[in-house]
Amino acid sequence: MQVTPREKPLLIYDGTCQFCRYWIARWRKTSGDRVGYEPYQDVVTQFPQIPLSDFASAVQFVDTDGRVYDAAEAVFRARACSPRRGALLWAYERVPGFASTSEAVYRFVARRRDGFSKITRLLWGDTLEPSTFSVARRLFLRLLGVVYLMAFVSLFVQILGLIGEDGILPVGQYLSAAHEQIGDAAYWRVPTLCWLGCSDAVLQWGLCGGGALLSVLLILGLTPLPVLALLWLFYLSLTTAGQTFLSFQWDILLLEVGFVAILLAPATWRLSSPRVGEPSRIAHFLVKFLLFKLMFLSGVVKLNSGDDSWANLTALNFHYESQPLPSWTSWYVHQFPEQFQALSIAVVFVIELALPFLIFGPRRLRHFAAAGTVGFMLLIGATGNYNFFNLLTALLCVPLLDDAFLRRFTLRRRRGSSQPHPTPRSGFHIRNFVLIPIAVVILSFSVVQIVSGTTQKDIAPRWVRKTMRYAAPFRSVNSYGLFRVMTKSRPEIIIEGSDDGITWLEYEFTWKPGDVDRRPSFVQPHQPRLDWQMWFAALNRRRQWSWFRPMMQRIVEGSPEVLALFETNPFPDQPPQYVRALLYNYRFTTIDERRESGAWWRRELRGLYAPRIARPEHQSDAAVAHPRRQQR
């Protein structure tokens, strides 16, 4: 059909159709003034060549040359007028069967427009206008600064006892050994600023204190791009130098989130600058995909671990009692009936295996995924101590919330002032030349990790495996999977000192279980890393011996930095003559036992964990003592 040629194309739709109005409002935003949109009720007299029945049954697209197209082809041609929107028209014209299929789908939807209008409103809300995420980006980056601040301050108060000059694993010795073993390759395989200096002042004030200061700058929204790059570099330096004490999944997660945040950050002096445009879609997608990978792999590894406690829904019968640092709420939830624990595991699998797919869905499904994930993190944080991990995971949900949603809660909105809309990006932005290759690498690694975690097969091409090994020291594209295998008992190490080898006094840790009468406490977002490592040491002595014996040696030497990691030092005047470690089995008391004794734990001695170590002048007198088995 041919009509009078026009200066710009026109899409004509049914103005009485709510479904049509929804989608036209969305397309107006993306096409701008490249396409005109008019209800046929207003322009029907301008096109006498088009029958009224055609207007009522399908949208009509009038091109600049006067040609008229209808139904699915009309939609595709109108969309092709917008930048990077021509894929469907290309498929319509060139892919066999695509045209007939799309027309059939169009007719199916057109006959049921009322129903699809309700579905559209359910999934997208009251408007279909494209979502913007400038407010979400500002909130995400500022809150990331808060998480960084927590991490650096937490390390500041314990770093010297862990890896300082008189700490358990001095980083200077670690770097020297690395260079001796692999030469100059150590600078790449052990990436850390500590190569430039690793004194106690550098560790505590340079890296931890400097990282805290940079975190404050990010919270204030000042020079976000260079600040984020430095934060990532500082935390990578500490994670590498921290050896086993900074080898947790939330450490590498913070590095990966921090790296993607660099790609998301605007190159402006202020985060709230009016010159800041919309976030890059590529970087925004990488943040969402990271959340998907984290949650989905956490569910997959539980199913693939071979641990029957996940399969038969009994894992939570042990979890609250055996987790690294229980809180007092853990004791109460542990008392809940098995039916409740089994139902909770079923919900966990839904959240970790099904909910992540909603991250890529329409607006309201994204919001639902965010709400479910944040709620899940709140429950985990309410029943255990996982430092900043829960906050960091919840933070990844912020980019799922669009500006229209977040502005409801901003102060400016409450005061009634209008929030300026960000400058939209159009065309191919120059920054994409950097983002696209980095995104391809990140997504390639991530897809390999997800598929390998799901199928338990290494499907990566050789070049991908080689590249992943090359990038691995930087800990910025990682695989995840918390609680792959559930720990079903709680062995606990108790360290004791003695001046005569007969009377032994306990060193009490600040947070891990020790005194059975002491109530478990909340410590998050701080992570007492020695307390955490003691949990791992109790489970596997051989793997933890590299740091456990040096710790015992530092105690008997009286290292102030190491002793500061404990709650109590039973030998405040001088170090004891001997130190040893015993291994106990700990279990939560029952309701009746706690009512009777007031104790939160009951414990049973299993035997010696580590033979006693003597002070240097008494090492020749040191002998292995095996205490009698006793029960409390």
The level of helicity is 40-55%
In order across it, which strands form the biggest sheet?
2-1-3-4
Largest sheet: 4 strands, mixed
Oligomer: single chain
Strand share of the residues?
5-15%
Instruction: Quickly give the structural class.
Output: alpha+beta
Mean pLDDT: 89
List how many beta strands DSSP finds: 8
Radius of gyration: 31 Å
Regions with little confidence, pLDDT below 50 for 5+ residues = 413-428, 620-632
Q: Using the alpha-carbon principal axes, give the shape.
A: elongated
Secondary structure tally, helices: 29
Tell me the number of structural domains. 3
First and last CA, distance: 93 Å
Task: Give an overview of the whole structure.
Helix 8 packs antiparallel against helix 14, helix 14 runs antiparallel to helix 15 and helix 20 runs antiparallel to helix 21. The protein is built from 29 helices and 8 strands. The chain has 632 residues and is of the alpha+beta class. The radius of gyration is 31 Å and the shape is elongated. It folds into 3 domains: 10-124, no CATH class; 134-474, no CATH class; 491-621, no CATH class. A hairpin with a 6-residue loop joins strand 5 (491-498) and strand 6. Helix content is 53%, strand content 8%. The N and C termini lie far apart (93 Å). The longest helix is centred in the middle third of the chain and has 24 residues, at 281-304. The strands form 2 sheets. It has a 4-stranded mixed sheet. A 4-stranded antiparallel sheet has the order 6-5-7-8.
